[in-house]
Amino acid sequence: RRHVLEASQQLTEIINSETSAESPEPRGETEPADDEESALHCLWVDKFTPQRYMELLSDDYTNRCLLKWLKLWDTVVFGKEKAAKKAKPGAKAHPPFSQPKEQQNKWKTKVQLTEEILEAELDQHKRPKYKVALLCGPPGLGKTTLAHVIAKHAGYNAVEMNASDDRSPEVFKTRIEAATQMKSVLGANEKPNCLIIDEIDGAPAASINVLLNIIHRKDAEGEAAAGMGRRRRREGGLLLRPIICICNDQ
Fold first, then answer.
1. Is residue 90 pLDDT above 80, yes or no?
2. CATH number among 2.40.100.10, 3.30.300.90, 3.40.50.300, 2.60.40.10, domain 132-219+237-249
3. With 70 as the cut, is the pLDDT of residue 219 above it?
């Protein structure tokens, strides 16, 4: 440990001597110097955090599943129609054996089963069957980084909130509705929001019930015929934006 500290001190002195030996830049070029100085003093965890999908070091299967689920929202969020899957040319030439469905599923891999679940038909509002994704694992695994990179890759503006901070169900509900129903106002190229709820395992039961009520809301127009429209409109509209929840303890 003493050797490491001494080497670290020597390296710091060398870096400082090199920076002081450099000639001062003219006044007109102060901004790049400020950027370099801020980059020099930023934490390594921020400096080297993955910015693109290809830089992710987490499990590739998990990355692809989350991205595939997020792309299912394209129809309702971006107005893109779901691309029809092309049939394999050898499928008709070699029909499958007449086996019961349970036996067919028995020999499918985990990847095939998950892809079939994710490729299920969209509901009547063109939303995916599962409205919320849950990422779980020990701290430092890269769950929050994965959620932010995937949301950015799919064309969303990632909005993060911590479920442990807002202990009141009313505040929790307000923040969820603000993130999922209001548009982003970040300049001209505004993007739809993707809500990332961190530490969902630390939220009280009342807040979880609020989240479930928002997920299971039905169409106000369809309920109006049964006399429930006014209450539904007061509660809020349908959930039309994806939500990614993160926890340590599943």
1. no
2. 3.40.50.300
3. no
Q: What are the distances in angstroms from CA 152 to CA 1, 25, 54, 192?
A: 41, 36, 13, 10
Instruction: Kindly report the pTM of this predicted structure.
Output: 0.66
Instruction: Give, as one character, the DSSP assignment of residue 186.
Output: S
Structure-token match 């919320």, residue found: 132
Query: What separation in angstroms does the CA of 59 have from each of 64, 109, 151?
Result: 9, 17, 17
Whether 84 has a pLDDT exceeding 90, the answer reads: no
Residue 132 pairs with which residues in a beta bridge?
A: 243
**Residue 229, pLDDT score:** 45
Q: What token pair was written down for 245?
A: 């929840």
Neighbours of 78 (CB within 10 A): 13
* Contact call for residues 44 and 94 (beta carbons, < 8 A): no
How many whole angstroms from its chain centre is CA 171? 22
